[in-house]
């Protein structure tokens, strides 16, 4: 009798949960979405621009950016491809990226962009949804047929629900990368060649800068989970300070600049105020400023986030690595004093 009561209670509880708004968050390792594109870009001779564009692009898969930010990022990826002899692999991977499902903060479908892309190569493309996303309700509680629930240029809802041109059979498994499932973006039978797919072992660094994140406190809340993970391989991110020297002994300057950044990062918390789009390290996690506060992404077991000196040019990068590797790289520049100087 007691067992029957417990079962009945469990079923009733499950029914009540299903009848209420769903709050499960569906996420992914966002940096994996641009790995193959970046490898193709590196092979095409894109240099430092490859990592810059890749990092900026995968950030649009978070829940906070607007519905067209992912498409805009794919446009940027194609823009760069067109400067590199219209590199076919870069264009194909950009088309697939444009269809990668985005994170859903509430396990509801994510709204579609309602404007045309800049590049014709993206016409008719829209993101798939994850299988765990509710196919009848979009983020914000919008029912199918409401604003943003039908892709731009279409007059009827997506069928099958959650599908996209690259995966026309339906949504893809939660956390999966579309680029790992197909090399065909679903437009004209285009596929990427095998020589530049790169896999997850491709690494690069970037020698650019953005405003130094400001410290302070804020009560702002971000809808992203503060523990979203990034790959254990080093993923270089945009540096947060200008190198103090662009000629001469840039290696020493790079090491000292990395130390200054790491010292500043040590003062930051998840509630520190920051400048939109800047990157940093917060409590050993990679962090991106979204909406004025940091969204952190765990580096993984045994890794820390750190500013590192570039090797072949002036500048620094922000990446996930081991503590020993970070110390060794800074020491190799001649800078004294460990991570923070």
Description:
This is Carbohydrate-binding module family 19 domain-containing protein. Residues 190-219 have a biased composition (Low complexity). Residues 165-229 are annotated as: Disordered. Residues 1-19 form the signal peptide. Keywords: Signal. There is one protein chain. The protein has 341 residues and is an alpha/beta fold. 27% of the residues lie in helices and 11% in strands. The chain contains eight helices and nine strands. The strands form three sheets. A four-stranded mixed β-sheet has the order 4-7-6-5. The chain has a three-stranded mixed β-sheet with strand order 1-2-3, with no helix packed on it. A hairpin with a 3-residue loop joins strand 2 and strand 3 (142-143). The N and C termini lie far apart (68 Å). Residues 1-22 and 194-248 have low confidence and may be disordered.
How do the strands and helices of this protein lay out in sequence?
Elements (H helix, E strand, L loop, with lengths): L1 H18 L15 H9 L4 H11 L10 H15 L4 H10 L10 E2 L24 E5 L3 E2 L34 H4 L46 E2 L20 H16 L13 E4 L2 E6 L2 E6 L5 E6 L6 E6 L1 H9 L10
Parallel strand pairs: 1-2, 4-7
Antiparallel strand pairs: 2-3, 5-6, 6-7, 8-9
Helix pairs in contact: 2-3, 2-5, 3-4, 4-5
Which tags fit this structure?
341 residues; alpha/beta; 4-stranded mixed beta sheet; 3-stranded mixed beta sheet; 11% strand; disordered N terminus; signal
């Amino acid at each position: 009798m007691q067992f029957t009561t417990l079962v009945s209670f469990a079923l009733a509880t499950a029914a009540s949960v299903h009848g209420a708004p769903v709050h499960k968050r569906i996420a992914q390792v966002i940096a994996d979405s641009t790995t193959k594109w970046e490898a193709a870009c590196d092979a095409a001779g894109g240099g430092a621009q490859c990592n810059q564009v890749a990092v900026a692009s995968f950030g649009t898969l978070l829940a906070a950016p607007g519905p067209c930010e992912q498409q805009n990022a794919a446009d940027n990826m194609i823009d760069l491809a067109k400067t590199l002899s219209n590199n076919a692999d870069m264009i194909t991977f950009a088309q697939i990226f444009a269809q990668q499902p985005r994170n859903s903060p509430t396990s509801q479908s994510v709204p579609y962009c309602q404007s045309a892309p800049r590049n014709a190569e993206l016409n008719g493309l829209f993101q798939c949804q994850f299988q765990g996303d509710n196919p009848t309700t979009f983020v914000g509680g919008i029912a199918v047929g409401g604003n943003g629930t039908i892709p731009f240029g279409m007059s009827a809802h997506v069928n099958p629900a959650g599908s996209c041109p690259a995966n026309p059979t339906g949504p893809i498994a939660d956390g999966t990368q579309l680029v790992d499932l197909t090399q065909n973006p679903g437009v004209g039978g285009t596929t990427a060649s095998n020589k530049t797919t790169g896999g997850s072992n491709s690494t690069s660094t970037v020698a650019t800068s953005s405003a130094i994140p400001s410290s302070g406190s804020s009560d702002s809340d971000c809808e992203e989970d503060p523990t979203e993970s990034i790959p254990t391989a080093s993923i270089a991110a945009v540096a947060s300070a200008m190198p103090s020297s662009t000629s001469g002994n840039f290696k020493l300057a790079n090491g000292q600049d990395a130390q200054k950044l790491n010292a500043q990062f040590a003062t930051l918390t998840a509630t520190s105020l920051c400048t939109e789009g800047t990157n940093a390290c917060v409590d050993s996690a990679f962090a991106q400023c979204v909406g004025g506060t940091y969204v952190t992404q765990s580096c993984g077991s045994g890794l820390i986030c750190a500013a590192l000196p570039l090797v072949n040019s002036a500048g620094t990068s922000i990446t996930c690595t081991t503590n020993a590797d970070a110390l060794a790289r800074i020491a190799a520049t001649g800078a004294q004093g460990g991570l923070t100087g």
